[in-house]
Design a protein that fits this description.
single chain; alpha/beta; Rossmann fold; binds nicotinamide-adenine-dinucleotide
Length: 418
Amino acid sequence: MSEGVNPFESLQEQVDDAAAYLDIDDGVLTRLKNPERVLETNLSVEMDDGSTEVFRAYRSQFNGDRGPYKGGIRYHPGVNRDEVKALSGWMVYKCATVGIPYGGGKGGIEIDPDEYSEGELERLTRSFAKELRPLIGEDRDIPAPDVNTGQREMNWIKDTYETLENTTAPGVITGKDISSGGSAGRVEATGRSTVIAAREAFDYLGRDIADATVAVQGYGNAGWVTAKLADELGATVVAVSDSSGGIHSEDGLDPVAAKDHKNETGSVVGFSAADEEITNDELLTLDVDLLVPAALENAIDADLAEDVSADVVSEAANGPVTPDGDDVLTEKDVLVVPDILANAGGVTVSYFEWVQNRQRFYWTEEKVNEELESIMVEAFDDLTSAYDDHDLPNMRTAAYAVAIRRVLDAYEQSGNWP
Ligand code: NAD
């Protein structure tokens, strides 16, 4: 893992790489590479012992040309302004890649949530929601979960917003509990799209994912569901990991049993059915057919990429491969399905949740999964057409070329305000 790579610079390089194949005015390109605005705020929160602690929090609204800003809220000690800016930019190009009518945003709080009680986290989340209130709204900016946040935090934010606005507005946030207006299929959506993207990638190569061996780095929401659904398609999950380390079994692991072990003990490490324990770097370089990075940014830099043995990488995480790492994987002919397509299931089903909230009419899980399947397959086909027809270096550049064109079309057609 490369700590030194600034994810915002990675995003800007990715946009530049694709823009080289498009005819874009320099000023417009600058617009495509920078957020429209960033809120940076200090949240003062009362602790259980009566003391006060201050937490730095951010919300970046990167681009709203195609619709309301959309993107998750992350709680992690590594959260900083540039990370949030990068994540918000990736959201813009992700929504455009899958053709859903949103711009991009992202938020985060610099915190290790494991060190705080539920009451402290609720006060912190409600304090952030109060700061966000002038910026967010069903037609303005719609947050969602990300690392270390989930239905609980989304419910708190919705409740704070609705109380302060004296209204009901379930579409102000997605990733909610079903009883608070959440969508069937949302929890599994990111892992589901990561697997659909991988399945299509193997198909594109004339292979079947059912014959693939799989390694998954990161066993949270995105990673564990990816492992479970890959297993259900007949693939063999041979290794999984989390921040404490990894486990490996040549003949395959039971993803559900590994998850049960993590739920009981806090980590996949120590799972008794595994052959051996391995490090995260060993997992990333295992000789498998499919590698799924599902943890954080910069997991695969140029040095590590030299040792990647997988044929296909499906990026469940945002920004897991650095630009230099990407160059090495392209050189080695590894098919990387970029994050802005592979993990787009999360925001796509968030979009379905928002549509259902606005209509007050709720879908079955079957309908959610069918709609997600068709959006993912169409988006994958758009990418491979761009990749094949325009001689682009890799799928990431193809995805950015398609997405940037869509953002530009919306920008150009909306005219220019002084
Ligand atoms: P999560 O908090 O549920 O899980 C994160 C997992 O990664 C945990 O198992 C953690 O132990 C592990 N991890 C953290 N640091 C690690 C390290 N250095 N090495 C190995 N494992 C490590 O988070 P999540 O929601 O699954 O998000 C994971 C990634 O997927 C993030 O990049 C996130 O932005 C992206 N993503 C998530 C969603 C979603 O809907 N949840 C949608 C799109 C993208």
